[in-house]
Structures are given as C-alpha cells and as structure tokens.
Amino acid sequence: MAVKFKVLPRKNPQDLLAPEKYYAAVSSNGEVDMETLAGMIAYQSTLTDTDCYAVLMSLEHNIISELSQGRIVRLGKLGNFQVSISSGGKDTPEEVSANDIVNNRILFRPGKKLRSMLSILTYRKAS
Q1: C-alpha to C-alpha distance for 22 and 6, rounded to whole angstroms
Q2: 3-state SS class at 72
Q3: Predicted local confidence at residue 67, as pLDDT
C-alpha cells in the first residue's frame, strides 16, 4: 500500500515574480470518522460499537478539557497533545500580557511507532 501524492504549482512568497515551482503534496485517500473507528475497535475486541464510540467521545471530551486547562495530554505510545501560543516580543517581562498573544494551536507529538511508520511509507503519484 502506498500514499498517493499529487503535484501542485506554488509561487515563491518572497519573490512573487519568480516562476512557479512544482511540489509533491499528499492526495487524501478518504477519511475515517469516530463511528467507523468505533466499529473497527469493536470488531477487534469484545466491546460493542456503541461502547467503543462512547469511549472515543469521552476521550475527545477529556482531551479538550485537559488542554483548555493548560495540561499536556499524554496518550502513552500514541503521542502527546499540548497547547502552544505565539506572541509579539516586548523589551521587558513586565510589558508582556495576554493581549500580545497573536496565535494559538494544538501541537501533536507522535509516539515512536507513529514516527517509525513514516520511515516505511511508500509513495505513488495519483492518477
């Protein structure tokens, strides 16, 4: 099995007059939702689809709750979630306030198995 990619033209943001160059970009091969994951987990265990779905929904709820309190959420070998922020720079620590925060995002740091999966992926051009 291989990950499909497509070729996309992109301008150089630092030189808009430069000719476009072409880059490989992953071509999505569909998606999987919580219900499907619940069914897959149920098939591989003694739990029902409904039980698995309830656990996944609870996991989502609790990850959101913990992240909103500034905690790092460690999901064992799967990886870690953490809130990250960016702010403008000030000359002294006293000048920095919440108003200086210009961006926020959620970081995911994959565990060892997920990272190693990347090294064995193969790719093929989408038709």
Answers
A1: 10
A2: coil
A3: 95
Question: Which residues face 23 on adjacent strands?
Answer: 8
- Which H or E run includes 50? helix 49-68
Q: How far apart are CA 30 and CA 52, in angstroms?
A: 22
User: Which amino acid does the sequence have at 29?
Assistant: N
Q: What is the pLDDT along the chain (127 residues), one digit of tens a residue?
A: 788 999 999 998 899 999 999 989 889 888 898 999 999 999 999 999 999 999 999 999 999 999 999 999 999 999 999 999 999 898 998 999 999 999 999 999 999 999 999 999 999 999 8
Q: Decide: 81 and 63 in contact? Cβ < 8 Å.
A: yes
Copy the structure tokens of residue 17: 């007059």
CA distance 111 to 78: 5
Sheet holding 123-125, edge to edge: 21-26, 3-10, 123-125
Distance CA 23, CA 12 (A): 12
Structure tokens at 96: 């920095």
